[in-house]
Design brief:
The complex is a heterotrimer.
Chain A lengths: L1 H22 L3 H21 L3 H26 L12 H24 L16 H9 L3 H22 L7
Chain B lengths: L7 H21 L3 H26 L2 H32 L13
Chain C lengths: L3 H22 L7 H24 L6 E11 L2 E9 L1 H24 L6 H20 L3 H19 L6 H32 L4 H13 L3 H5 L2 H16 L8 H4 L5 H10 L4 H8 L1 H5 L2 H23 L4 H21 L3 H31 L20 H15 L5 H16 L5 H28 L16 H16 L7 H4 L5 H4 L11 H7 L1 H29 L3 H9 L2 H6 L4 H47 L7 H21 L1
Antiparallel strand pairs in C: 1-2
Helix pairs in contact in C: 1-2, 1-4, 2-3, 2-4, 3-4, 3-11, 3-16, 3-20, 4-5, 5-6, 5-11, 6-9, 9-12, 11-16, 12-16, 14-15, 14-19, 15-16, 15-18, 15-19, 16-17, 16-18, 16-20, 17-19, 17-20, 18-19, 18-24, 19-24, 23-24
Classes of the chains: A mainly alpha, B mainly alpha, C mainly alpha.
Chain lengths: 169, 104, 656
């Protein structure tokens, strides 16, 4: 019972955060809404017994990445997006496409779903740090090493791109 | 009240809604940084689906994929933001509607 | 497993790669003539040694070795594999043995040439291709070598490509060879179509099986006829038979050692080899055997007649080569495949020696500043006094090619004529071919004696200021080795009469055939008396003609040519003009084609082809003009189109 309540609470929070992101004209508010969304998703991970991912979600997304976003927004000191008064056709089309997507997904769920067959498994053995670490160091060792190369490349690339170029001659 | 009990469709539905909202954001917003954040939202929506599937089959593959997606998203955010910085330095503007020199 | 045998094929390739690449990338290397020559020679000499050991250790069973699996597509399985059997061993020994000597000789001959490294790289590449040709155990590997030697021949004929005439000669050789190669390709397709395999041994056993069951026509219809005819057409290109022989005399534009190696000893015998390799198919199609023998006889006599009226030392030798190739094909046409290969062997010795000797002469004339044209025998004469080794070896080879008893040429040529003659008892046409062969033998003795005499004996006709010198030992030693082989080479295959019924080594483990329906040995025993007549005739033809020619030219010197002209009358001009083959091809093929090219095809090209091409371009840019509006540069628009695509695809998956 309590888990049901918590699920709906965090689902609604996540969606609210997303709406706040999409429809807020101030970039700082938008970023803060996104943080709410990320926290809610971390809570949903917890409810799925994916504890490790939940922690990572908070540390990497809500922590590191969002701080970076906020930092850049403040660094650039951006104004609010000016709203266009006239009717924007593009905005209408985007809404229609989004709604159509959700409608289609709903149809997919109704048509192809068999609630009895697709129950959640009673227990989730791969949510713990230990199991994830074991998997990373055995079966997923190669991608794991490769992702560190990607991160190094991103680091070097970011420094190169963002640094102030001084042109001699 | 049975229909309220969380079920994998509940999670997938939340994921789909978040994804659609993110897509709408990408299509409507003009601030490059906000567009960026919307993309992060879409990635998170997909991650949620993946974790749900992983949980459903009690299989590590989905969780692993989420882990790698997070790493790549972090790398992407760093590089993307530095590009935004570089653009802002040149144009004093991050409105993507004004960044349309790659056209005919 | 990589066996030593693999080295036989691939060591020359390695040599070519080392010399070619090092010379190309590292200009200082080009000056290291000794090193280049050593590498090149070693990469031929080692395979020669390996082949020798394989030859002496041969147990009577073919050795097969595979480098790798080349093509595997459905039913078509092609191994990159090679075969060492008596035929390919012997050919391999000729190629690498004579090849080694010519490499050594080239070290001296090409000294100081700016393309020294290139020359040796090409030469090694040629040996690699030739090894593929003769050792390959299926038609496709053979064809690889077949095309490879054509390419190397082209590269080496046009070696001094700054000279437009020489570049043109190279192109002519390439084009004439292409015609033959096309026939070869068709033959390969037909062989696969007919037998379902390209393996020589497979094809042979299928034909043998059908022949023993007496079901050749039922199983193959007329396909064997076409197959053998196409292979023969291919052979006329590579081996310079009528109608495609015109390239060989022009091929003399290349360096002389190249003429000796490629255009006398090895490449031009590829056709002979191929027909010998496919002898079962030929024995099963007697009509083609008749075509072969008639074409060969015509080639032999026409080339011999042309050789009489030529004054360029290398041209004479070139026509002599065409004529001798005619002899080999006559032997093939008589079913005496062993004899043909035997003649390939002896011919390789004495003709390589002759060419290298002519190279030595040209070298001396050029470096002695003796005449305007160092190849014109009218400006030579009396060179023997100055060049002992060259003169002696050249005369020995002349005796050998003329068929003087005891030397190599005698054995093989006599055997060819004998096999033609005895086939005549079954098919009278062969008597006529035999007669032509005999006349050609007379002509051969005549023009070769004339050549040797006018070059080495008689009055000195070059400039008195000239300073003629014998070539260095690096050039004369190969000459001596070849001269010794030209004397002794015949004894490895003694024919019947002298061998007392013991077949020579080749035939012992190999094959013999005849197109008349009974073994040739029977016919020979029936008419044993003729053997002695033929032998006497051979003595008379060779020694008699040479003695006559020698005294004739000693009496008249260069003026003797005028008397010869008087003897032949109006035919002589035709002979001098090479029977107008080049002119005929020019009038019948080249000019009509260029007329069609300029009047019809060029117009077609401008109007239709260009129109289509330009129209396509215009259409593309017109359509682009419309659709480039989509390329707004706004990321938002692109994302929207993407999203619309996602929605549509989903809709299709859900409701479609």
């Amino acid at each position: 019972m309590i888990s049901t309540i918590l699920f709906w609470l965090f689902s609604i929070l996540a969606i609210a955060g997303a709406i706040g992101l999409v429809f807020n004209r101030n970039p700082v508010y938008a970023a803060l809404s996104l943080i709410i969304n990320f926290f809610s998703i971390a809570a949903l991970y917890l409810s799925l017994q994916a504890e490790f991912l939940a922690v990572i979600q908070i540390m990497v997304y809500a922590g590191a990445i969002m701080v970076l976003f906020l930092f850049v927004i403040m660094l650039l000191n951006l104004k609010n997006e000016e709203m266009e008064l006239r009717f924007d056709a593009r905005r209408g089309v985007a809404l229609i496409l989004g709604v159509a997507f959700i409608a289609e997904m709903a149809v997919v769920f109704r048509t192809f779903a068999n609630p009895e067959q697709y129950r959640l498994a009673p227990d989730f053995t791969y949510g713990k740090v230990e199991a994830i670490g074991r998997a990373l160091m055995t079966e997923y060792l190669f991608p794991f090493e490769m992702i560190s190369v990607v991160l190094i490349a991103a680091l070097v690339g970011a420094i190169m791109v963002a640094r102030k170029h001084t042109y001699h001659s | 009240m049975d229909f309220l009990t969380p079920h994998i469709y509940s999670y997938l539905a939340v994921s789909a809604v978040l994804f659609a909202l993110g897509a709408i954001g990408v299509m409507t917003r003009r601030n490059a940084i906000v567009v960026f954040m919307c993309i992060e939202l879409m990635l998170n929506a997909v991650n949620l689906s993946l974790v749900t599937f992983s949980r459903m089959h009690n299989d590590p593959a989905g969780s692993m994929l989420v882990f790698f997606v997070m790493c790549v998203a972090a790398a992407e955010a760093v590089v993307g933001l530095s590009i935004v910085l570089a653009i802002f330095r040149n144009k004093l503007d991050v409105d993507i509607n004004h960044l349309n020199i790659f056209k005919w | 497993m990589v066996s030593l045998n693999t080295l036989i094929v691939f060591l020359p390739l390695a040599g070519a790669a080392i010399n070619g690449l090092a010379g190309l990338l590292w200009p200082a290397y080009r000056k290291q003539e000794t090193l280049i020559g050593l590498i090149a020679t070693a990469s031929i000499a080692v395979p020669f040694a390996l082949l020798l050991s394989a030859f002496f250790g041969y147990q009577g069973e073919a050795i097969r070795f595979s480098a790798f699996s080349w093509i595997a597509a459905g039913n078509l399985q092609i191994e990159f594999s090679y075969l060492l059997d008596p035929l390919s061993l012997l050919m391999g020994l000729i190629v690498t043995g004579v090849g080694s000597l010519i490499h050594v000789y080239s070290i001296g001959y090409m000294h100081g040439d700016s393309g020294y490294y290139k020359y040796f790289a090409y030469l090694n590449l040629f040996i690699f291709a030739m090894n593929n040709l003769i050792l390959g155990d299926n038609l496709l590997v053979m064809f690889l070598g077949w095309e490879g030697v054509g390419l190397c021949s082209y590269l080496l004929i046009g070696f001094w490509y700054q000279d437009m005439e020489k570049a043109g000669a190279a192109q002519k050789a390439f084009i004439a060879n292409r015609i033959g190669d096309f026939a070869m390709l068709l033959a390969i397709f037909l062989a696969y179509f007919t037998f379902g395999t390209l393996d020589f041994a497979e094809i042979q056993s299928q034909i043998r099986g059908a022949g023993e069951a007496g079901a050749l026509t039922e199983m193959f219809g007329d396909r064997l006829f076409w197959l053998t005819l196409l292979v023969f057409i291919a052979a006329t290109g590579k081996s310079a038979q009528i109608p495609l022989f015109v390239w060989l005399p022009d091929a003399m534009a290349g360096p002389t050692p190249v003429s000796a190696l490629i255009h006398a000893a090895t490449m031009v015998t590829a056709g002979v080899y191929l027909i010998a390799r496919m002898h079962d198919a030929y024995l099963a199609s007697p009509e083609v055997m008749l075509i072969v023998v008639v074409v060969a006889a015509l080639t032999a006599i026409i080339a011999a007649l042309t050789a009489i009226a030529q004054n360029d030392i290398k041209k004479v030798l070139a026509y002599s080569t065409v004529s001798q190739l005619g002899f080999m094909f006559m032997a093939l046409g008589a079913g005496a495949f062993t004899t043909a290969i035997f003649h390939v062997l002896t011919h390789a010795f004495f003709k390589a020696c002759l060419f290298l000797g002519s190279g030595s002469v040209i070298h001396a004339m050029e470096h002695g500043h003796a005449a305007e044209d160092p190849q014109d025998i009218r400006t030579m004469g009396g060179l023997g006094k100055h060049m002992f080794s060259t003169r002696t070896t050249f005369w020995i080879s002349t005796l050998a090619i003329a068929g003087v008893p005891g030397l190599a040429g005698f054995f093989s040529k006599d055997e060819i004529l004998a096999s033609l003659f005895f086939n005549g008892f079954g098919q009278p046409l062969y008597f006529a071919v035999w007669a032509v062969g005999l006349v050609t033998a007379v002509l051969t003795a005549f023009y070769m004696t004339r050549l040797s005499y006018l070059v080495f004996n008689g009055k000195e006709r070059f400039k008195s200021s000239a300073h003629i010198e014998e070539s260095k030992p690096v050039m004369t030693v190969p000459l001596w080795i070849l001269a010794v082989l030209a004397i002794a080479g015949g004894y490895i295959g003694l024919p019947y009469l002298i061998g007392h019924g013991e077949y020579h080594w080749l035939n012992h483990v190999w094959f013999s055939g005849t197109i008349i329906n009974r073994p040739l040995e029977e016919v020979m025993h029936e008419h044993a008396a003729f053997e002695y007549v033929l032998l006497a005739l051979a003595f008379a033809v060779s020694i008699g003609t040479m003695w006559f020619t020698y005294t004739f030219y000693r009496k008249h010197d260069l003026a003797g040519d005028a008397k010869v002209q008087g003897f032949f009358g109006r035919l002589y001009e035709t002979m001098r003009q090479k029977f107008y083959f080049d002119e005929a091809y020019d009038a019948l093929i080249v000019r009509p084609f260029s007329w069609i090219g300029t009047r019809v095809l060029a117009v077609f090209d401008r109007q239709v082809v260009d129109g289509v091409v330009e129209g396509t371009a215009a259409a593309v840019s017109g359509i682009g003009e419309v659709f480039r509006r989509l390329q707004s540069g706004l990321v938002t628009n692109y994302v929207m189109i993407l999203a619309a695509g996602v929605v549509l695809v989903l809709a299709y998956l859900v409701w479609g």
